[in-house]
Amino acid sequence: MLRLFALVYGLVCYGVFFATFLYLIGFVGNLVVPKTIDSHASDSLAFALVVNTLLVLAFAVQHTIMARPGFKQKLTTWLPAPLERSTYVLVASLFLILLFWGWQGLPRTIWSVEAPLGQGLIYALFAAGWLIVLLSTFLINHFDLFGLRQVFLFATNRSYTSPEFRQTLLYNWVRHPLMSGFVLAFWATPTMSLGHLQFAILMTLYILIGIRIEERDLIAKHGSTYLQYRDEVPALCPFGRRTAR
Ligand SMILES: C[S@@+](CC[C@H](N)C(=O)[O-])C[C@H]1O[C@@H](n2cnc3c(N)ncnc32)[C@H](O)[C@@H]1O
């Protein structure tokens, strides 16, 4: 019974994540979805800046704490281990939904590209960012990253093995292509509003801090293999510095 529940739980969490991910694309790109980064303009600049900062901070803190091995260890003293990743994915999605719901639009234009060719190029970069994010998840292990592999192995009574260190395709050029994709998608907009700029700056700062913390765990897990990788491959930009210590 628990095995069937785990499978259903994992599928539901994955569904919530995928819907949230699609909404995020529409939210950031001002596309299709009912509430976007620039809709629902706030009356108060100070209020909007504070609320938006708190929303990003809440998402960043949740993401950072729940991803740490120590937290996972504590959580799995009462939660079955195969459900841990799905729970992380579900809670992260809920924090993102909270951000969509609470976001205060600040539509004042900071810069705007009017030329059709320039707009086309920027939209192409926006699309490339999201495709890089999605591709990177598959290069690591998409189904493990979002908890489906864990619940499927549990449901079929097989033991879990941690995914191996990967250095394929995009991971040959940068150590954090998934984060590079997010940075590209967050900044590539033909019309940069104040609210969008605030989102892009805060998220980029969080990514820069987050990858440093993630690398501590990766070094603890993969040891000299990761240290050598860090020496040879730049963090976010293929033309960047080799080592981000
Ligand atoms: C959200 S993903 C982000 C991965 C990476 N920071 C990126 O931006 O492409 C986080 C997970 O990826 C795993 N990970 C990061 N780099 C990896 C690699 N080169 N091979 C395998 N797993 C990796 C981490 O252990 C963590 O569980």
Care to describe what's here?
This protein is an all-alpha fold. Helix content is 68%, strand content 3%. The chain has 11 helices and 2 strands; from the N terminus they run ααααβαααααβαα. It has helices at residues 2-29, 45-66, 69-75, 84-102, 116-140, 142-145, 148-155, 170-173, 177-187, 194-222, 224-232, and strands spanning 109-112, 191-193. It has a two-stranded antiparallel sheet with strand order 1-2. The relative contact order is 0.15. The structure holds S-adenosylmethionine. Residues 136, 140, 145, 163, 165-166, 171, 176-179, 211, 214, 218 line the site of S-adenosylmethionine. S-adenosylmethionine (SAM) binds next to α5, α9 and α10.
SSE map:
Layout: H1 2-29, H2 45-66, H3 69-75, H4 84-102, E1 109-112, H5 116-140, H6 142-145, H7 148-155, H8 170-173, H9 177-187, E2 191-193, H10 194-222, H11 224-232
Antiparallel strand pairs: 1-2
Helix pairs in contact: 1-4, 1-7, 2-4, 2-10, 5-9, 9-10, 10-11
Bound molecules: S-adenosylmethionine.
S-adenosylmethionine (SAM) binds at residues 136, 140, 145, 163, 165-166, 171, 176-179, 211, 214, 218.
